Amino acid sequence: MSQQHFETFDLTIENDIAHICLNRPEKRNSMIPSFWEDLPTTVRDIDDNAKARVIVISSSGPVFTAGMDLNAFTPKDHSSADEAKRERIRHGAAFYDTARKTQEAFNALEACRVPVLAAIQGGCVGGGLDMVTACDMRYCTQDAFFTIFEVNIGMTADVGTFPRLVQQMPEGLVRELAYTGRRMAADEALSTGLVNRVFARHEELLAGVMAIAGEIATKAPLAVYGCKRVINYSKDHSTADTLDYIAIWNASFLQSQEMQEAMMANAEKRPADFVALPTRQESFGSN
Question: Which of 105, 159, 184, 287 has its CA at 20 to 30 Å from residue 40's CA atom?
């Protein structure tokens, strides 16, 4: 088992599962500037160096995350009108770069080769919803709720909720949540397909998600990577294009030895001995 501590989360890697746990419950696990640096760097390191076959994101305390800590990104006040004007111009020009940087942090979850599972308890607010929509699967507790909170503070969500959420639930409901900023409870999230399963308590949630991650980790890594790649591709392409893509993918990557090992392991009722994904020679921003 390996462990690392960062300012906003802890990382544990064991049994081919990388567990990223947000560690600032006293601050409702809000996302400060270091989070946006450390999360994508950590995810890419896990992926590029084939350190795990599955990633689980969870958090500590009663709230999953309150989202972005806006105070950390608020421009400073200035005494003179000229200074204030210059700061507004600089802020406007820098905002685009900041938005793209935060977007890229969650793009890393979608782009990595291994599945990412989110275990959500309590509030999943603003940037938290942006993050979990970039994950492959979402699970939550009965007390969980989801909020596109940005409209409540006079802004439009910009870190990834809209392009992803409209693929995960009915568009009309996404619009309602976006325009009203209301909370969506766990049962509603389950009924709309945003989450896969609802657990009674946090302990049961984490145990359940780890069990699912453990099951995924027993499968052939290359086959799981192919599934993720093709599913992501299919979201933005026609059925015909996706069928062609999967045919090309299997023509390039299908390994008969891995298939034989999977069948033999199943017949012999033993864990399969699959080849790990190769380390990447360079990190890619998207898949």
Answer: 184
